[in-house]
Design brief:
The complex is a heterodimer. By secondary structure, chain A is an all-alpha fold. Helix content of chain A is 72%, strand content 0%. Chain A has 17 helices and no strands. The longest helix of chain A is centred in the C-terminal third of the chain and has 29 residues. The two termini of chain A are 45 Å apart. The model of chain A has no long low-confidence stretch (mean pLDDT 89). Chain B is mainly α. Chain B has 2 domains: 56 residues; 230 residues, Orthogonal Bundle (MetI-like fold), CATH 1.10.3720. The C terminus of chain B is likely disordered. The chains are: A mainly alpha, B mainly alpha. Chains A and B meet through helix 1, helix 2, helix 6, helix 7 and helix 8 of A and helix 1, helix 2, helix 4, helix 5 and helix 6 of B.
Chain lengths: 308, 306
């Protein structure tokens, strides 16, 4: 037969053509909408003009012109400090809280209270960012808000927190804690439910109290999961989701709330300075990549837990 | 140590332990009650405020139950056609988007779960690469424009329907829960890959399909960024964009002007902010308990270490 000395790879592909068919839609979409834009990144080095297209547009002179413009721009310092500051603040609050939450839920006996507790604490996660920021505004508004009412009760004048730059980061981080702590604890609950029950029984026989079991069984069991999530968070130190920050921004808090993502949006979509915006974004991606690799390398050195 | 001394020692220790455990339980219980109240109260407040007289709400009289019960906020919603158009658009985006999302991600996840797939690791790497790298806002925007998808229905449901995260979750489920012996048996019986996937794998995968379907649906329902960037026509706007105008930009139709009419309009506008939060979030809250039971079954563990 003609195919008898065909290599095993070709045979495998021919046999499993159905599987490749199943893969096809996602591969096409990724090529068109993930890989093609990656190629478009070169406009960061060009003077992009819509009429000439990506290839036809002339190279920027010098090639790092737009990067230089960002480094020299007025917003460089603001965005480059706000982004990691918000992330570090968020890390110190929203990294440990889900762990604590999981430890608390793990202490509850299976039953109605536990079920209700979990259902309710997961729920805010499903509220949209727009509604969430709407809620924040309703609660913090000095006129109609909850904050205002409490201040009235205490007889003090209600501050306009949404308009104060110094309050922005705290509002951002603690509203995140309210919304996502329950949901983020699921992963730790799953890790805790994998603990062998004999471990607890042995500890009970040895006379360990509940607190000691928590300290010497539960917490050590969470460390691998926690370190991987920590690496991922630190690796993302220089990136911050656009939506919530953008929705919470106003002219009064801009000095604390302008981050790289919102600046990229304003320059690119509102200002139509495509090359400049792409350059800022590219600079950010490179920093993120370096961070992720560095953090992964460090954790690999000091513990066995790493992403790769 | 004699026997009785030893026994006394143990009794003492057990007593200490039970006191410490008692305090521990008390601390845990009080913590959980405080957390529960902190999560529930804001949600509860929005619900009762939506049924209350807005003057009572802004005056600080509403704490535990509605004051001056009224449905005006909900009635006012009916007068805003933009809200209902947005609602309808969002339903369309959610239904079509969830269908496309499942149709794209679940088959890919299954194919990538098969160890005998030639080139599996390379393809997986190419998928994961897109999680960490992307062209960024502007190159992606230009691509969408080049494909003539800007300001169309399809831009909301098709280009970004591949979710590598969801693929990893589903792939982990397939590798752990669908035994490869099943495929061997089916193949000997002459069953092809496609028939096996549709007739055998899918019916066994209801849990993972439900969870991923819920994620995609919630993501679509709450999606706001894509509409902000890629839509121009107000008639295509999803609910979240309308919500932003009402809740955040405070751009309510009819709230302009002076005198008594304007005062009433302002009152309704304030009230409507509560009722629209309820109306826009309700569909998710209704569906959520049906799928919630799968969350703790560890469907998502594999996603941590891809």
């Amino acid at each position: 037969m003609k195919t008898s000395y065909q290599n095993p790879a070709a045979k495998n592909i021919r046999q499993n053509w159905g599987l490749y068919l199943l893969l096809l839609p996602s591969v096409i979409l990724l090529i068109c909408f993930a890989y093609k834009p990656m190629y478009g990144v070169i406009i960061a080095f060009k003077d992009y003009k819509s009429a000439s297209g990506i290839i036809g547009s002339p190279w920027a002179d010098p090639w790092y012109k737009y990067f230089l413009r960002f480094f020299k721009s007025f917003q460089f310092k603001t965005t480059i400090t706000n982004t990691p500051l918000i992330n570090i603040y968020s890390l110190t609050v929203n990294f440990p809280l889900p762990i604590i939450m999981a430890l608390i839920i793990n202490q509850m006996h299976a039953g109605k209270f536990k079920r209700v507790f979990q259902t309710i604490t997961y729920m805010p996660h499903f509220i949209s960012t727009v509604v969430m920021v709407g809620l924040i505004r309703i609660f913090l508004s000095p006129g109609i808000g909850f904050m205002g009412n409490i201040c009235n009760l205490l007889g003090i004048e209600a501050p306009n927190l949404m308009g104060e730059a110094s309050a922005f980061k705290s509002i951002y981080v603690w509203s995140d804690a309210w919304q996502h702590t329950g949901w983020d604890s699921i992963i730790y609950i799953a890790a805790l439910s994998n603990i062998d029950i004999y471990l607890y029984e042995a500890a009970t026989i040895d006379g360990a109290s509940k607190l000691q079991k928590l300290r010497y069984i539960d917490i050590p069991m969470l460390i691998p999961t926690a370190s991987i999530l920590l690496i991922m968070r630190v690796g993302n130190l220089m990136s911050l989701g656009f939506e919530k920050v953008y929705l919470m921004q106003n002219d009064l808090n801009l000095s604390a709330s302008e981050v790289i993502a919102t600046y990229v949006y304003k320059i690119g979509i509102n200002g139509a300075q495509y090359s400049y915006s792409a350059a800022i974004n590219m600079f950010n991606t490179i920093i993120n990549f370096i961070l992720l690799i560095t953090v992964n390398q460090i954790t690999k050195k000091i513990s066995e837990n790493s992403l790769w | 140590m004699s026997d009785s001394v030893l026994r006394m020692h143990w009794q003492k220790k057990a007593k200490q332990r039970s006191t410490s455990d008692y305090i521990f339980n008390l601390v845990v219980f009080s913590f959980s009650v405080v957390i529960l109240l902190a999560v529930v109260y804001p949600i509860y407040f929005i619900i009762i405020a939506s049924f209350s007289d807005p003057y009572a709400v802004s005056g600080g009289d509403v704490w535990l139950c509605p004051v001056g019960f009224t449905l005006d906020g909900y009635k006012e919603l009916l007068n805003h056609s933009s809200i209902w158009r947005g609602y309808w658009n969002t339903i369309l985006y959610t239904v079509v988007g969830t269908f496309i999302g499942l149709a794209v991600n679940i088959p890919a996840a299954y194919a990538l779960s098969r160890k005998d797939l030639f080139g599996r690791n390379a393809i997986m790497l190419a998928f994961i690469f897109t999680m960490f790298f992307n062209g960024g806002l502007i190159p992606t925007f230009l691509t969408i424009r080049d494909f003539n998808l800007y300001n169309t229905f399809w831009v909301m449901v098709l280009p970004f329907s591949v979710s590598v995260y969801n693929i990893i979750v589903a792939r982990t489920f397939f590798s752990n829960s669908i035994s490869s012996a099943l495929w061997d048996a089916a193949r000997i019986d002459g069953c092809g890959n496609l028939r096996y996937f549709f007739k055998i794998v899918l019916p066994l995968s209801k849990a993972v399909i439900s969870v991923i379907g819920l994620w995609i649906a919630v993501g679509q329902w709450n999606s706001y960024f894509n509409a902000l960037i890629y839509l121009k026509d107000a008639k295509r706007y999803p609910l979240q964009i309308i919500l932003r105008d009402i809740l955040i930009i405070n751009n309510v139709q009819g709230a302009l002007g002076t005198g008594e009419a304007a005062r009433i309009a302002l009152r309704l506008a304030n009230l409507m902010r509560y009722s629209i939060i309820i109306v826009s979030t309700l569909p998710i809250m209704i569906f959520y308990p049906f799928v919630q039971k799968y969350f703790n079954h560890g469907v998502m563990i594999g996603a941590v270490k891809g």
